[in-house]
Write a structure and sequence with these properties.
With 406 residues, the protein is α/β, with parallel strands linked by helices. It has 15 helices and twelve strands. β7 and β8 form a beta hairpin. The chain starts with 10 loop residues before the first strand and ends with a helix.
């Protein structure tokens, strides 16, 4: 059960009572008359064979307030795409499966690439970007939500609470971020958020002062959650990062485009668990190691656009400050876990802090070597200006794929 405390500069919407899900869904069905809703599901094909997605689809199939479901399918060959069409075919709602590796969407991607407008690397960011483009092309929804496809603890209350702040016509929010406690199976999880993002932000505040952007990021209770919702208008100007900085990058984009009183966060789950990435201490191109480097670079880039000057000495100071702050957080989380009867491996926690401290310097050096690096995929309004009609082409390609391979 959450408290009612409002911290930071964005509104926090709490789960104060166990409100019946039927009440929430009845209200959402009313809201849908004024603000039709679409759900975006970025998925790897492997997730169709995993333990989470079948239950997610079963839960979503019970929801009657969603007008459209847009599924982005990555890493699938033709046979796997055909299987995906059957897998998602149990959904009673209007739904579309974007075969991102299929020849039709690949051809469109090549057209974009020829004009330097395509995503530079494969991954969740690319998948989400094409799904949001399809949502614009479809033009059916006024409220769009997105969540991951590997949530082991999923129930449809998560979806209702994620949609509610954006779908309610009486609210003025343009963007909403979901949050939750990363606690499952008697363990405290979420190391990157707990031990990298928050300690890094607090360290940067110690060094640079209470900059508005740092105060803004520090207002989010779980800045790395993969669950968020938004009004359709947000999509046209939203630049999606293509690397692991996706979640921080999206938060930075809505901060750039909207007043903070149009942004909020909502408690969407009492328990949340999904597949876990390995630490990958010896591999900067994978796991939590790559994630931590990309996230740190995303924060440094945004601060630089706000006039903060970085040098190699600055990053050494950030590392030293971060290390002390993060170790203090380890102690706080350990005590919290002990009081709640939860497991927290002190060795693994401090091992993660040591890796993240090293990666802060690596991210800083990469930034200094290439300060003009732009991992953002262009906003759709720019793409449509360069290639008029491309959204309709995407919509047609998806429809033709489904007709041919169903």
């Amino acid at each position: 059960m959450a408290d009612f405390y409002q911290n930071g500069i964005i509104t926090t919407l709490h789960n104060l009572v166990d409100r019946p899900i039927a009440d929430l869904e009845a209200e959402l069905a009313q809201f849908a008359r004024a603000r039709p809703m679409a759900l975006v599901l970025p998925s790897l094909y492997s997730e169709l064979e995993g333990p989470a997605l079948a239950n997610i689809i079963e839960q979503i199939a019970q929801v009657d307030y969603i007008d459209e479901i847009i599924i982005g399918l990555d890493q699938a060959d033709e046979a796997q795409y055909r299987h995906a069409l059957k897998f998602f075919g149990r959904l009673p709602q209007r739904h579309h499966v974007l075969w991102n590796d299929g020849p039709r969407l690949r051809a469109i991607d090549q057209r974009l690439s020829d004009k330097a407008l395509a995503p530079m690397e494969a991954g969740k960011g690319r998948n989400v970007w094409y799904c949001l483009g399809f949502a614009l092309a479809s033009n059916r929804a006024e409220a769009i939500a997105l969540h991951d496809c590997d949530i082991l603890t999923y129930d449809r209350r998560l979806l209702a609470q994620l949609f509610y702040p954006i779908a309610n016509p009486g609210f003025n929010y343009e963007f909403c971020k979901g949050f939750y406690a990363r606690v499952a199976d008697g363990r405290v999880n979420g190391r990157v958020s707990r031990l990298l993002v928050t300690p890094l932000i607090r360290s940067l505040k110690k060094i640079f002062g209470d900059l508005d952007y740092l105060e803004y990021l520090d207002s989010y209770r779980y800045p790395l959650s993969g669950e968020f919702s938004m009004r359709k208008d947000v999509l046209t100007d939203l630049r999606i990062p293509s690397d692991w900085g996706l979640e921080i990058g999206v938060l930075s984009e809505v901060y750039r485009n909207y007043s903070t009183n149009r942004l909020c966060q909502v408690d969407i789950a009492d328990a949340y668990d999904h597949k876990h990435q390995s630490l990958s201490a010896d591999n900067d191109s994978g796991g939590l190691s790559k994630m931590s480097i990309d996230i740190a670079k995303a924060v440094f880039r945004k601060l630089a656009t706000n006039g903060v000057v970085f040098t190699s000495e600055t990053f050494r100071s950030i590392k030293a400050t971060y290390f002390r702050v993060a170790l203090d957080f380890v102690e706080s989380y350990r005590n919290d876990a002990v009081m709640n009867g939860l497991e927290l491996d002190l060795h693994r926690e401090e091992e993660a802090v040591e890796l993240f401290a090293q990666n802060i310097v690596k991210a800083g050096n990469t930034f200094l070597e290439n300060p003009m690096e732009t991992p953002f995929i262009p906003a759709w309004n720019r793409v449509c200006s360069a290639l008029p009609g491309v959204l309709e082409d995407i919509k047609a390609a998806v429809a033709e794929d489904q007709r041919e391979y169903s």
